[in-house]
Amino acid sequence: MGSSPNSKPKIVRGTAGYVLEDVPHLADYIPDLPTYSNPLQNNPAYSVVKQYFVHVDDSVPQKIIANKDSPRGIHFRRAGPRQKVYFEADDVQAAIVTCGGLCPGLNTVIRELVCALYHMYGVKKVLGINGGYKGFYAHNTISLTPKSVNDIHKRGGTILGSSRGGHDTTKIVDSIQDRGINQVFIIGGDGTQRGADRIFEEIRRRRLKVAVVGIPKTIDNDIPVIDKSFGFDTAVEEAQRAINAAHVEAESGENGIGVVKLMGRYSGFIAMYATLASRDVDCCLIPESPFYLEGPGGLFEFAEKRLKENGHMVIVIAEGAGQELVSESIQSMHKQDASGNKLLQDVGLWISQKIKEYFTKQKTMNINLKYIDPTYMIRAVPSNASDNVYCTLLAQSAVHGAMAGYTGFTSGLVNGRQTYIPFYRIIEGQNKVVITDRMWARLLSSTNQPSFTICKSVTEEKREEETTGEQ
Prior knowledge:
Layout: E1 10-13, E2 18-22, E3 36-37, E4 59-61, E5 73-78, E6 84-85, E7 94-98, H1 106-121, E8 126-129, H2 134-137, E9 141-143, H3 169-179, E10 183-188, H4 190-205, E11 211-216, H5 232-252, E12 256-262, H6 269-278, E13 283-285, H7 299-310, E14 312-318, H8 323-326, H9 347-362, E15 368-372, H10 375-379, H11 385-403, E16 409-414, E17 417-422, H12 423-426, H13 438-447, H14 452-470
Parallel strand pairs: 2-5, 7-8, 7-10, 10-11, 11-16, 12-14, 12-15, 13-14
Antiparallel strand pairs: 1-2, 3-6, 4-5, 5-17, 8-9, 16-17
Helix pairs in contact: 1-11, 3-4, 5-6, 6-13
Subcellular location: Cytoplasm
Site (Important for substrate specificity): 191
Subunit structure: Homotetramer.
C-alpha cells in the first residue's frame, strides 16, 4: 500500500545512517496547542520508578543484528509516557472499537485501555463502539468503566462485538465529530488499520484535535514490522490440543493419519510454531511453501513411506496452503468476504479426500484418516498469561501515545520494545514465513519432511536430462 496519498512520511535523519520513521503529531497541523503536566508524576504507583518518562529522542531499531560497519538503519519512536500531555482528563472523550475476526486477547486490550485511561490519566468518559466500524454511524455505543470491564479478560471474543467491512470514512468522522470524541482506539488487522489510516487522514484534513491510534490484531501474525501480534501465543498453545488429539487418533488405528487444519490465510506462522512445539507432527504445509501430491518427492509418496516406517502420521496444514491445487477443480478464486479477503476452500477436507482416494487406488494399505478443524475453538478462547501481559503493554502504550498528542500510529512490539509505528508501515504488506530462513529449516529437520520445492526441482531436472538424452 505504501504511505497515504494525502501525506508524506515523517522522516528524521541522523548521523551514521540513522533514520527515524516518525509518527504524526497533533501539533503538526494544529498550531499553538496547550500542553499540561503528565498526571503520572503525582501517581504513587510510579513515584518509585526512576526515569519513568520516555526521553523525547528515544527510538528503537527495526533491525537489531548489525556488524561494525553496519549503518544504524531504520528506527521507530519508543512508546511510553511523556512529561507533557496534550489533553486534560476532563476534556477527553475516548472511543474503542474492535473490527474483523475474533482473536484471543481482544477483551484484555479493551479492559486495559479503559483502566489505563481511568487510573493513569483520570479519564472518565470512554465509549465502546458496538459492532465494528459500522457502529460509529449506527449509533451503537456503551459506556465503559473499570468496573464494567473488570472481569472481561476471562472471556473469549469481544464485549463490543465485531464485524467485517462497513467502513465509510466520512460517516465515521462525522460521528466522531458530532459526539465530541477526541481519542479513538481501533483494534484490528491490516484491513482495519488501512481504515484507521483513512480516518486519520480525514481528521487531519478537517484539522480536528482527535488522536487516532491502532492496536494490531491478527491471530495469523501476518502484520509486518512488529515482532508478533497478540493472541498468537494463545493460538499456538491451543493448537497443541488439536494436534495431540490427531496424534492419539492416528496412533490408535492401523495406518492412522491425523490431519489438522490451522489458521493461516496467507501466512503459516501458527502451523509452523505449533508443529515445532508439538514434536508429534510428520508434515507441515503452509501457504509460503508450495507442495505437490503425486510423483517422486510428493506428499503421497512421503505419507506412504512414513506409514510403513511408523504405522501412523500427523499432517498439519494451514488454511491458505495448497489453494492453487484446490482451485484447479473448484472455480472460486475471485470470491471475497466483506473485508476484501479471498474466500478460501476448505483445504483440510480436500487434502483428506485426496489422501483417501490415493490409498484406495493404490490398494497397498488400508488407512484410517481423521480430520480435525479447531479454527473457531482456537479463535474463541480467552488469552493465555503471556498474551495477557502483551495486551496490557500494547494498551498502555497506546494510551500514553494518545495523551502525548501522537496520532496516526499503531502501537507495536519491535525487537522486544514497545514502539509507535506509522500506519503506512503497518499496511504496506504482509508478514510471511521466509522458507529460506533458519526457522523453516528447523521445522524441516524436526519433522524430517521433504522440502517439496527442492524435490520438484530435482525431479524436473531429471526429466530434462532424460529428455535431452533421448534426443
